[in-house]
Write a structure and sequence with these properties.
3 domains, Cyclin A, domain 1, two-stranded antiparallel ribbon, single chain, alpha/beta, 23 helices, TIM Barrel, 486 residues
Length: 486
């Protein structure tokens, strides 16, 4: 009997974040939304911290609208949100009390799967989000970020996988975010994790294409027995994005996998996003050649382009090789952290300071100091003593989980900014600064066409569906009134 292979489509989140700088708006999705939800995908990745923030900072639209749009017809397809272990969608560490509330907001807007990751693969940090999601019936996925270092052996990932299984994860995702994994390493690691997971959870593999090995490694992972491949529809694949859905699905089917997608629908989706790219002057993903230097500095593609832009603005673009080399040194000094959000940003900024100022650690970031003090979780290795002294400035590392040490925030938030009209407004107050929320409101008023279902009446009706205790509704405008009693 052919082994079934499910497809997790990343174009609406990871694909567009990698290639379009998270500038895909909801109106760009709306015309193809129902086709996408009825194409046989196992999961559609729709929401994340980057998507949420882009709705406020750049796109001037309701961040939840696209989730509701997809969820409306996603009867047999999971709708996924990517959640940061300590902060949901933001950057500041939040207390555990926030996660039950946050998961309810996700669920009521249509999210059915929560994928939790931690920048240090610290599963203790992931526990609160996973537990809160599971308690309300959401599918829980725990992600382990792959990296290469003397510490990140196959046995390291076996241990971390066992910890996630003990937390009750329905899915385990091995993610090669920086496209570092060689095919030889993939064979040993996937084989060990497949044997360990067995039928306790679904086993996913996700990689990017920056090294040129993404499609090859995904097909190899399929041959080794993964349950779910994470891919992006072709216009939003390749480059620094994920392998193309059509290629992976067809190749897997050719070698005997039971791939449960509608290939004709995939072509319609691809055609739609090629047109959107042309209309909005967005790039199409292109295959890349193998880049061996990735294994040394491990800088993700999006972060590299940001470094190039920052150096170009200073007239120092020729110093990029020096910055990448400095990143390699800093990572070793800091105990080999995974180069993924948020730690990768801290390391990259520190490398910029060190190179631009011509003196290492002359300027020190507060976030990097918090990393060495344990405020982002357990440091994977030993920090070089002189660097630890410079960054900590005599302060002692914390003991215990960061989430246990942060003061409660919900009561204070309600007292200072409440009452909130909706739970979504309360959620935004936790994640987005007041000034940014005000600028967003102004931008939304100036660009109402960016919403496909965001009129005040639509918002009111949607809110009423979440409040079954309300039995009387009265609406009035001029001489027109509407009065309803249950």
């Amino acid at each position: 009997m052919p082994r079934s292979l499910e497809i997790w489509e990343t174009a609406l989140r990871d694909g567009q974040q990698s290639l379009w700088a998270t500038r895909m708006t909801t109106p760009m999705i709306a015309p193809i939304a129902e086709t996408t939800t009825r194409s046989g995908y196992w999961c559609l990745e729709v929401m994340s911290g980057a998507v949420y923030e882009a709705s406020y900072h750049y796109n001037a639209e309701d961040p939840w609208e696209r989730v509701r749009l997809i969820a409306e017809t996603a009867e047999k397809t999971y709708v996924a949100a990517i959640v940061r272990s300590l902060s949901v969608f933001g950057w500041s560490t939040l207390p555990d009390e926030v996660f039950p509330f946050a998961m309810r907001v996700l669920a009521r807007n249509g999210v059915t799967l929560v994928n939790v990751f931690d920048g240090l693969n610290d599963t203790a940090n992931m526990a609160a989000a996973l537990r809160s999601a599971k308690e309300i019936g959401l599918h829980t996925a725990g992600t382990l970020i792959f990296t290469e270092s003397p510490l990140h052996t196959d046995q390291y990932y076996v241990k971390k996988t066992e910890e996630l299984l003990k937390l009750g994860c329905d899915s385990i995702i091995l993610e090669d975010a920086a496209s570092l994994m060689t095919t030889a390493r993939l064979r040993t690691l996937i084989s060990r994790l497949r044997a360990q997971i067995g039928d306790q959870a679904r086993f996913h593999f996700q990689t990017h294409c920056a090294s040129g090995l993404g499609p090859l490694n995904t097909l190899e992972a399929i041959s080794l027995g993964i349950d779910v491949a994470q891919t992006a529809i072709s216009p939003l694949a390749h480059g620094t994005s994920n392998p193309p859905t059509e290629l992976i699905a067809r190749e897997a089917a050719e070698v005997g996998s039971d791939v449960r997608v509608d290939f004709d629908a995939l072509e319609r989706i691809a055609t739609h996003f090629r047109k959107q790219a042309a209309i909005h002057d967005k790039p199409l993903g292109q295959p890349v050649t193998h880049e061996p230097s990735l294994a040394r500095h491990q800088v993700p593609g999006g972060m590299r382009s940001n470094l190039e832009n920052q150096l170009s603005g200073l007239g120092m673009r020729d110093r990029l090789p020096a910055v990448l080399d400095e990143i390699s040194h800093i990572r070793e000094e800091l105990g080999w952290p995974v180069m993924v959000t948020p730690i990768s940003q801290f390391v990259g900024v520190q490398a910029l300071f060190n190179v631009i100022e011509g003196e290492r650690y002359r300027t020190v970031q507060a976030d990097l100091a918090n990393y060495v003090l344990g405020w982002f979780g357990e440091v994977p290795g030993t920090i070089e003593p002189n660097i630890l002294d410079r960054l900590s400035e005599g302060r002692e590392p914390i003991k215990g989980r960061p989430g246990d040490l942060v003061a409660p925030v919900l009561a204070t938030l309600d007292a200072e900014e409440g009452p909130f009209a909706t739970d979504e407004d309360r959620f935004a107050a936790l994640q987005i600064s007041p000034a940014m929320r005000e600028r967003w409101k102004t931008a939304c008023r100036l660009h109402p066409s960016r919403s496909v279902a965001g009129t005040p009446l639509a918002t009111l009706l949607r809110e009423l569906t979440h409040r079954p205790s309300i039995s009387h509704v009265f609406l009035g405008k001029g001489n027109l009134t509407f009065n309803y009693r249950d």
